[in-house]
Amino acid sequence: MRTLYQDILIGIFFISGTWSFISGQFIFSSVLFAGAAIYTNMVRCVS
User: Fold this and answer.
1) How far is Cα of residue 26 from the mean position of the Cα atoms in its chain?
2) Distance CA 26, CA 18 (A)
3) What pTM value is reported for the model?
């Protein structure tokens, strides 16, 4: 069940990053995409 919550969190990062990119907030979307990538790598290495 823990991986479901982690996948949901990564999905929220990705969707909000995509929406920010479409809205023209390029710096904020870059931060969200980077956060999703870093979080994914941290979760995969620890598990």
Assistant:
1) 15
2) 10
3) 0.70
Interatomic CA distance for residues 33 and 44, integer angstroms = 17
**pLDDT more than 90, % of the chain:** 0
Q: What is the CA radius of gyration of the chain?
A: 11
Give the CA count within 13 Å in the CB-facing half-sphere of 12: 7
Alpha carbon 22 to chain centroid, angstroms: 16
Domain residue spans of the chain: 1-46
Q: What is the pLDDT of residues 18-37, one digit of tens each?
A: 888 888 888 888 888 888 88
Mean pLDDT along residues 4-12? 86
The C-alpha atoms of residue 37 and residue 42 are separated, in whole angstroms, by 9
